From TrEMBL:
Residues 562-581, 648-667 have a biased composition (Basic and acidic residues). Belongs to the WD repeat NOL10/ENP2 family. SUPFAM superfamilies: WD40 repeat-like. This is Nucleolar protein 10. It comes from Timema tahoe. InterPro entries: Beta-prop_NOL10_N, NOL10/Enp2, NOL10_2nd, NUC153, WD40/YVTN_repeat-like_dom_sf, WD40_repeat_dom_sf, WD40_rpt. Gene3D superfamilies: YVTN repeat-like/Quinoprotein amine dehydrogenase. It is found in: Nucleus, Nucleolus. Keywords: Nucleus, Repeat, WD repeat. Residues 1-368 form the Nucleolar protein 10-like N-terminal domain. GO terms for biological process: maturation of SSU-rRNA from tricistronic rRNA transcript (SSU-rRNA, 5.8S rRNA, LSU-rRNA).
Amino acid sequence: MLVSDPNNVKIYNLSAGKSLPEWLSDRKRRALLKKNVDIRRRIELIQDFEMPALSTTVRVSKDGEYVLATGTYKPRVRCYDVNNLSMKFERCFDADVVTFEILSDDYSKLVFLHTDRYVEFHSAQGHYHRLRIPKFGRDMQYHYPTCDLYIVGAGPEVYRLNLERGQFLNPLMTEASEVDCCAINPLHNLLVCGTKEGKVEAWDPRARDRIGTLDCALHCVSESMVEGVSSVSALKFKGGLTLGVGTSTGQVLLYDIRSNKPFYTKDHMYGLPIVNVDFHESQDLVLSMDECIVKIWDKNTGKLFTSIEASETKFHSLCVVPNTGMMFIANENTKILTYYIPSLGPAPKWCSFLDSLTEELEESTMETVYDDYKFVTKRELEDLGLEHLLGTNLLRAYMHGYFVDIRLYKKAKMVAEPFAFEEYRKKKIHQKIEENRANRKLPKVNKDLALKLMDEDMKEKKKKKVGLSLLKDDRFKMLFENPDFQVDKNAEEFRLLNPVLSKLDKSRKKELKKQVLQQQFDEIEEEQEGKPSSEESSDDSGSSSGDDREWTKNLKRQHKVLKNEARRKEWEERRKERQSEAEAATNSGGQPKFFELREGEEFKGIHGGVKRKRNNVSLGERVKREGHDSVRMLGSVGNREMTFSVRKEQRRLKEEKDAQHHYEERKKLLRPAKGLQTKPLPKFLREYRR
C-alpha cells in the first residue's frame, strides 16, 4: 500500500506493491513473506483483481455485491464477488469490448458492445444472444422505463433496440456526422448525445424529438483559447438539472440544463480528451479523468481538492463506488488500480477493516499540485509580451520554462491576439464553404483522371452497382490535392502504360463537366418524386473484345510514335553538333592570324607550312585522311610503296554528269510545241527552270 497526500488530502493506493505469481507453492509464498518486507506490507483487497495484459472498463452492480471488469488479451470479462473477495467467473470473447452495461441489480443480465459491431447479451448461465449493428458503436445506455437500449457510433443515427419486443425500432437522426457518447438522466429520463462537432443534443424518449442543443465547442474556444474543434467525449448527470460535459481538448463544462451557457469551465491543462466525468454524491465535488490524471475539484468554485496522477500507465475508465471514498481505475497495466480517500467517505462495508488500517500506514508527502497555472516556454513569453516579468513573483521557473497564473495568461493572450476567435471563426466558415464546393467542381490536380472516374461512376450508377469511388475515399484524397501527385503525360512510361487515355475525347469531357452539376439537381428531384436515379442499362457482349483490339492498335501506334520521336531527337542533336562545329570553324578562319618568324628563317609560302604540319602527322593518320588503300614495305631499309584509288572524285564527276543529262531531258519535255496555246507553268516548275 502506498500513501500520498497531495494538497494535504490522504490517498491510499491499495493496489501498490509486488504481486506473487499464481504458480508459486504455499511453501514458497510463506518464505517470500518472511524475507520481503514489501510483499508482507501489501494488501490484496480482492484476489486476482487484474487482467492478463490491460483493463478497459470497470463497473459495480447496483446492489454493490459484484465488480465486473473487461480487459485483454484474450478479450474477456471477469466478475468478482466482494463478499468472498475473490473472482466468481470469467468469460472470453471474440473481439475487444468497447463498453458494457449491467441491466439487472446483479450480474445476471449483461450487454457488451464489441469493436466488430456486435452487441452480445449474457445471462447468469453465460452467453445468451448476439446481434450486429450497421455501424461501429462507441457508447450505449439502457432506458429502464421502456426497455430500450440506445447505441451510438460512427454515424448520425442513434439505434434503438427494444429488449422487451426483441427488435430494432426506428433510429433517432441527429445533425452530427458522428456521435461519440450518450447519457440518460435517472430522474426525468432525458437522453443526451455528444457529437463530433462539439454539440450536445437532448432528446425526449417519449416523443422521440430533439428538444434542445448545446454548442460546447464554441464555449471552449471562447473561454479556454483552444486550437481546433472540440468534440464531446464524456457526459454525466447529477440530479435533474446539472450536466457535466467533457471535451476532446481537455475541458470540463458544467451546465444547468435550463441555460445554454456553462456556469463553470475547468481546464485540465494537458490537452488530452476527458475520458470520464463523475459527481460525488455527498459532497459538491466533480471527478474528471483523462489519460494522465484524475482531478477532484469543487463544483461551484473550481478549487482543486486533490488529484491522482498516473505514474507509468494510461488511465482508461473510472468507477466510483457509491456512498464511499473508494474508486477503481482501469489502466494499461495488469493490475486494476484501487484507491481509497477517507476524506470523500468511509470504506465499503465489505472492506470496513481499511478504516482501522489507515491510521497505521506510513505517509509520503508530495509537492503541491499547480492546478491554476499554465506552463510556458521563454519563446511563448516573448510572443505574449511578458518577458519583462522574468525574476518577479508572477513567474515560477520550472525545467525549461515558467509557470504563470492562468488568469494572467488568458489576459495576455487576448491582448496579443485580440482577433484570434474571429480569425478562427472565419477559417472554419471558409473550410465549410470549400468542402461544399469540392462536391460541385473538379479538383485542381489530375482533372482528366477525375473526369475518367466520374464517367465510371455514372456507368456504375446506371448499372445500379454501389461502390466507394476514389474521389470520395479519404485514403486517396491527396491524389487530387497535392501537386506532387500530378500525372506527367509526356513521360514515356505513362504513354506506354496508358495508350487508351484518349478514350475520353474532348466532347465527352465537356459533356461530363456539364453533367457534374446537372446530376446533383436531378438526383434531388428524383428523390423528392420517389423515382430511382437511373435505369439499368444492358451490357454489350462484344465490348470487352473490341476494347482489347483497340488497345492493341493504340499500343502499336504509340510504339511507332515513340521511335520516331527518338530518331528525330537524335537527328536534331547531330544537326546541332554539326552547326556548332561549322560556327567554330568559321569563327576561327574568319579572323586572320599572324605568325612571327625566327631569326635566320625565310617564308616559303602557305603550302610549305602545311606540308611541314602534314609531315609531323603519323603515316597511319595520313592514310586515313587521304583515303589510301594499302601501304607495303619494300626491302628492309625503310622504303615503302603506296597504292590508292580516286573513287571519290570519279563518283562526284559521274553524279554531275547524270544530273546534267537529267536536266536536259526535263528541259525537252517541258518545252511547248510551236503554235500551241499553253498555260503558264506552275511555280515549282518555273523555279526549276531558273
